[in-house]
């Protein structure tokens, strides 16, 4: 790693603390989470540990393919929530496969993978609730899952595992950044506002471990749309 394990663990703990705060706030008061989410975004934007900054750049704002979820109309909160849950479940699977690959040899990295996998699972469950679904009713996005699992088969080192996770976290963050621009449903906005800083927090931690700039995500071939974002038209929920 490009940073000490001690610093890496501290950064993971910080993201984990913020994740827990966000989920508790959302469960306690769906509307009240909005102001807290703004504060968390400000923290991440200002984060400078090891030269880190917010992982999502201005170039990630647009995702025209999202409108394919509901034809030419702005997608509904339910549509976006189901799609987001299906993406989160793919992230869960990716971390699980990577953790079991035998390539993760640093305990701090293994612990981070388990923590981040747990975050994605909780995010998926929360998105399911927003959509009025039971968590078990929503499955991994099938096409995206197949492509991510295929990519995990090409991993050869712990560094490769970290890079795949870094790229995937940036893809997810870009997705939620767009969604915030089109959503009108207050609870859905609250959840997206809570999840986005956590996903970018994951990317910041992973980027620091790799010594990469926040905007260095490759958006792996096969994962992205032509606009370099996860596109529901290409990855339908089913």
Tell me about this structure.
Helices cover 61% and strands 0% of the residues. With 238 residues, it is mainly α. It has a single domain (5-210), classed as Ferritin, CATH 1.20.1260. It is globular, with a radius of gyration of 16 Å. The N and C termini lie far apart (39 Å). 47% of the residues are buried. Mean pLDDT is 77; it is low at 31-72 and 220-227.
* Percentage of residues assigned to helices: 55-70%
- Which structural class matches the secondary elements? mainly alpha
Order of helices and strands: HHHHHHH
The amount of beta strand, in percent, is: under 5%
Q: Which assembly state applies to the chains in this document? A: single chain
- Rg value: 16 Å
CATH architecture: Up-down Bundle
Give the total of beta strands.
Answer: 0
N-to-C terminal Cα separation, in Å? 39 Å
Query: Helix segment count?
Result: 7
Provide the number of structural domains. Answer: 1
Main pleated sheet: none
Q: CATH topology, which one?
A: Ferritin
Observed structural traits:
238 residues, mainly alpha, 61% helix
Write the layout of secondary structure elements.
Elements: H1 5-28, H2 33-45, H3 77-99, H4 107-130, H5 142-152, H6 158-182, H7 186-210
Helix pairs in contact: 1-2, 1-4, 1-7, 2-7, 3-4, 3-5, 3-6, 4-7, 6-7
